Amino acid sequence: DGGITQSPKYLFRKEGQNVTLSCEQNLNHDAMYWYRQDPGQGLRLIYYSQIVNDFQKGDIAEGYSVSREKKESFPLTVTSAQKNPTAFYLCASSIAGTHLAGGQFFGPGTRLTVL
Amino acid sequence: RKEVEQDPGPFNVPEGATVAFNCTYSNSASQSFFWYRQDCRKEPKLLMSVYSSGNEDGRFTAQLNRASQYISLLIRDSKLSDSATYLCVVIRNNDMRFGAGTRLTVKP
């Protein structure tokens, strides 16, 4: 079955620790995205990548880092510099450009809680 | 002012009711519009696109009013399974902008 997987589903972290969220897709999509979702707010774009070895900052990139060494994988690291990391993190992918036509597919999400 | 605004609800309706949500957007240059559905603690999934001429998919009807800068979603004959949060998405300059969502609960 083709799809996007994110792991873990729930993650707890102590303040001051870095943590990496996994996102893998086997849809052969070129583009991948990371969003965070907070209560009462729309999804906000953290980073996106349209091709391997290239990525761009989104609206709220501060305190986050990503890599895109393989087409299938786009891990997100939440660093200790992120002041308010508790949120629901969603990874998405699309064929390049089709996200503008509703062609973006989301993974099941990782709920990160900082203790 | 947020670029995309939705009434957060919750909208509590009985089964069989007709319910409508609106979503307003602030930038008149917005190009494309969508409704996504998100179940509790799950990922958003595309429900339908919104066209200027309006479009219908079964019990769901989406419409766009460019003059007043809003889109709407109408659900007829509500089912229990329609309970979810409905997200409005607006595309502008190759960016997707998400509303915070409207929560719908359909009760027996």
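The mean pLDDT of chain B is 93.
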